[in-house]
Amino acid sequence: MIDQHFDIVVIGGGIIGLATALHATRRFPHLRLLLVEKEDRVARHQSGHNSGVIHSGIYYKPGSLKAKLCAEGAKAMVEFCREHHIAYRICGKVIVATHEEELPRLQMLFERGQANGLHGLRILDPDQIRELEPHCRGLRGLHVPETGITDYAAVCEKYAELVAAQGGVVSTATKVKALVRHAGETAIETTRGAFAARYVINCAGLHSDRVSRLSGQEPEVAIIPFRGEYYDLIPARAYLAKSLIYPVPDPRLPFLGAHFTRRIHGGVDAGPNAVLAFKREGYRRTDFSMQDMAGMLAYPGFWRMAGKHWRAGAGEFYRSLNRRAFVRALQRLIPEVSGSDLVADGSGVRAQAIRPDGSLVDDFEFVRKDNLLHVCNVPSPAATASLAIGGAIAQMAEKEFGLEEQLPQRPR
Ligand SMILES: Cc1cc2nc3c(=O)[nH]c(=O)nc-3n(C[C@H](O)[C@H](O)[C@H](O)COP(=O)(O)OP(=O)(O)OC[C@H]3O[C@@H](n4cnc5c(N)ncnc54)[C@H](O)[C@@H]3O)c2cc1C
Predict the structure, then answer these.
(1) What pLDDT, in 10s, does the model give residues 46-71?
(2) Prior bond to 335 cis, omega within 30?
């Protein structure tokens, strides 16, 4: 028994589902839209457990979706925060090379940043690093003045409010349990009743591959969860980082390396690392899910990935279990930081898509099958880029689902 019919159902009340619903309700005001979220409020997973950085777009391959949507999205995010009085600050960041072999990679980032249209990039010598970050040491630095910080949970709350104001329905505590396709519609069985939709947009983050499977469509990638653990600098030592201090990332991995991040509501985070999680929403080291582990171990791509990256993975495990090793990684950037300066401060779990050949999907990826659109991979900087991603998804929906033909004729 269907309780209600909608034109579009968006699954997932993270920043991507919400931004998609925001654009869709604006673009197609005549269509009925429902967003369902399994938790009791929005932004309970990746979108509410992240570093809060408005990325500038320096890291991404020129021409990639990440580069394009991050540049567009960062501008839109700043504008959105300004318009809706959400705290943000463009504080800039410094990427620091601490070993000789990182120098060519730092130079490459500088060139990438220029190719991606960033302004004000500057290579720094050790004295110039100290001028910006008095406690940081390095051989060379790269100053990225356009990077900022905000509160993405607050951004999500505002997106949800605007979706509702534009006529969309946001239903929390509504978990999708089954998707049945028939006669051009999809029946969506949830913990709060059954709905029917002509089009479904899957933005289920850590569960996006499972939601694809619920619809009978075999996903082309599997989601593997990577936990990022944070420490907080104790207030008396928060002066050690004035803004954001990052290492030069390992180009083989999609993670940026443990860094120092000033928080928009005060304090400084150190982290996150990137440790394989034994549960998709496993925020503690001891969290374990038999279902998640069995799925991971049965996926051939997982073993191929492990074969390629076991050394980096083992290092992350070691630094997760051994606080002194984690501190040593941070001391490369700020030598005077010590274990007693840090207190454990929560974690986030990243949804990383892996292909059957074991490669980590690097770029944002979306796949349309019939009347479903699956958001398969939207890792960092997806929070920064959310407005641009939501706009791109709404545009894809318009084209792929033929929604433009269904627009009501405007009165002449
Ligand atoms: C540790 C960490 C640090 C990061 N730092 C940054 C940063 O500084 N800057 C940046 O730009 N990006 C950052 N990111 C990336 C960014 O946070 C994510 O890319 C983004 O939040 C992804 O949003 P999402 O909506 O796809 O996923 P999510 O926020 O995970 O939302 C998916 C939602 O779907 C819901 N859902 C799942 N299954 C179902 C179902 N069956 N029925 C109903 N609902 C369902 C979930 O409950 C969840 O709320 C970081 C991520 C992490 C984890």
Answers:
(1) 999 999 999 999 999 999 999 999 99
(2) no
Residue of 50, 80, 149, 188 best suited for mutating to test ligand 1, as the one with most atoms within 8 Å of CB: 50
Nearest-CA neighbor of 20 among 402, 409, 399, 391? 391
User: What pTM does this model have?
Assistant: 0.96
The contacts of residue 189 (CB under 8 Å, 6+ apart) are 176, 177, 178, 179, 180
CB of 378 within 6 A of ligand 1: the answer is yes
Radius of gyration of the chain (CA): 22
Q: Which ligand 1 atom minimizes the distance to the CA of 230? A: 1
1-10, 138-147, 246-255, 371-380: range with lowest mean pLDDT: 246-255
CA dihedral sign, ordered 207, 190, 392, 161: negative
Q: Give the rounded percent of residues in the chain with a pLDDT score beyond 70.
A: 98
Question: Residue 21's closest CA among 39, 30, 8?
Answer: 8
Counting ligand 1 atoms within 8 A of each CB, the residue from 40, 45, 375 with the most, and so the one to mutate, is: 45
109-113: which pairs have CB atoms within 8 A and are 24 or more residues apart? 109/58, 109/59, 109/142, 109/248, 110/142, 112/58, 112/59, 112/60, 112/61, 112/62, 113/56, 113/57, 113/58, 113/142, 113/144
User: What confidence tens digit (pLDDT) does each residue in 352-388 have?
Assistant: 999 999 999 999 999 999 999 999 999 999 999 999 9
Cβ atoms of 154 and 85 closer than 8 Å: no
Residue range 204-208: mean pLDDT, rounded: 98
